# Entry
Amino acid sequence: MSIAPVTVTVTGASGQIAYGMLFRIAAGEMLGADVPIKLRLLEIPAAVSAAEGVAMELEDGAFPLLSSIDITDDPDVAFSGANVGMLVGARPRSKGMERADLLSANGAIFTAHGKAINNNAASDVKVLVVGNPANTNALIAMNNAPDVPDTRFSALTRLDHNRAIAQVVKKTGVRASSVRKVSVWGNHSATQYPDLSHATVAGEPALAVIDDRDWVENDFIPTVQVRGTAIIAARGSSSAASAASASIDHVRDWVIGTAEDDWVSMAVCSDGSYGVPEGLISSFPVTCADGEFAIVPDLAIDDFSRERIDLSVSELEQERAAVRELGFV
Ligand SMILES: NC(=O)C1=CN([C@@H]2O[C@H](COP(=O)(O)OP(=O)(O)OC[C@H]3O[C@@H](n4cnc5c(N)ncnc54)[C@H](O)[C@@H]3O)[C@@H](O)[C@H]2O)C=CC1
Ligand SMILES: O=C([O-])CC(=O)C(=O)O
# Structure
């Protein structure tokens, strides 16, 4: 029996992250090696021509799973029938731009995209917001899509999760696959809390294996928190390939499921778990099965973790208050 194609909409399709993402999606690395893909590429009018160039390259990949590519500058067309929406396109902060201007520019984009998802996407749509400020942009899209369940919206903190695993790999010398149950809490920003309290290294408690509290508090946590800034400083532009790779990991695990005896980090709508106010898009450790995520329940949170989770969550509350003030949620 032939498998029905899945429609994947990618916004910001001419940008750096999309360039790292689209070829891997077309190759079947996100939804499976037997699932045909219909790609919908959304760009602003000035970048449609560049998206056409990306589409020419995708054609030249001769990917057996790639059944169609549509390019548009109209969100209603882009999200028509979308099963997966990867919202990468966003307005970057330009010189002299105040924080309120950034929230306002992105608020307008994610309001429009939320409405287009609400009115046009498939009934099973899953949305990943990558464009920054990712949590609050996801909050805006979710609030502008009242007919779509809140559980279908998420923001990317898998890059932070993968960065945390990478630091533990460097410290302990194990393979990445031996590091499990890392958690990232809160906002995709420098206040995020990468947490090793429940993590394991080769099946043993990570904190016992590492046995270096000073490293955890004064090296591991700040390194993960500011890794994006360090990459911008070194590369001259923001992480693109690693963000694309993490985005693919995020959607793959959401759709196909997380591994036994492991979890991943996703920023999702809080149900009040762990004292995070309901309705905020905040990062949690989650497991996924049958296309649904579940926040890992009943983890013990010590005072050190509590303080750091609360700090990042209070930043999310401030962002929510700011976009409320601007009328986006
Ligand atoms: N959550 C995360 O872990 C990470 C998020 N990011 C964020 O991802 C976003 C994209 O990054 P890059 O691809 O490197 O940027 P980029 O500037 O190379 O590409 C962004 C693209 O989005 C397009 N765009 C802008 N407004 C749009 C709209 N209304 N509709 C459709 N397309 C639109 C632009 O024309 C541009 O082609 C940025 O906001 C960046 O800060 C980057 C790294 C990690
Ligand atoms: O600020 C940016 O665009 C980069 C970013 O989010 C990251 O690398 O985590």
Observations:
- The chain has eleven helices and 14 strands.
- Residues 39 and 69 are 5 Å apart (CA to CA).
- Residues 132, 159, 228, 231, 238-239 surround oxaloacetate ion (ligand 2) (CB under 6 Å).
